[in-house]
Fold this protein.
Amino acid sequence: MRGPGEAMSESNGVGEDVIRRIEGGIAWIVLNRPDAGNAMTTDMRDQISEWLDDASADLAVRVVVITAAGERAFCTGADLRGARAAPRPRPSGAPDNAVGDGARVIRTGWQRLVNAVLDCEKPVIAGVNGTAAGGGMHLALACDLVVAAEESKFIEVFIRRGIAPDAGGAWLLTRLVGIQKAKELFFFGDDVPASEAYRIGLVNRLVPRAELEATLKEMAERLAKGPTKAISMAKSLTNRALDVDRATSLHDEALGQELVTHTEDSREGIASFVERRPAEFKGW
């Protein structure tokens, strides 16, 4: 059992296609298929979902960073050339694809991944080093903060393949840029350079690629030193704000305020103010 701040790296069932290391309260998740555009295999997708779920319960993790190896791509979506899971045995005469099979694959696949990011109780930062396309774009947009290299770009690539957006794209993009702009990006599928993505609100910070890792580290370290439970509550309240009416939002706020005031970090924050000293938050 490691203690808070203790470094940890690991192998997993996905081999080296995606790597996690934990150090200084930061869980770094790195997509590691640069020669394949960091396209996401099923195993990679499921592994990241599990790691995000685990981060919520791990007191040693106070922030998650999702980024990728190489300079060409952050994630170009699903690996369409990858191996498919073996089909389940079916009764005699049953169709190869029954009604509901396709929707179930979507729900338990990319939607699960996006939900894992949104529901993670720790802040999640995307470090977009190159092209973020399709599901890879939506993975980035699901994160709480997006830092992008100036050389990166975003592509709603679905229209180019004659398919509808998935991975929570319509829900995410509409909230970030509004209905009309979201339709434009979906309908035409044009490349969106990082500078334009920053202008329309898809990106929080735009930096030269050479400064991306240092910027991610600086932001993550700052969040890792913050009052983790208060940040978690702010994330939850903000994510729900556009989906509920005013009365419900204020009800959630009141409950959230009460819960957070019972944390050790809240007591430390008040004590540090009274004693006129910097706060030392523990994360609980």
User: Anything to note?
Assistant: The chain has two domains: 8-90+99-224, 228-274. Residues 228-274 form one domain. Residues 1-9 have pLDDT under 50 and may be disordered.
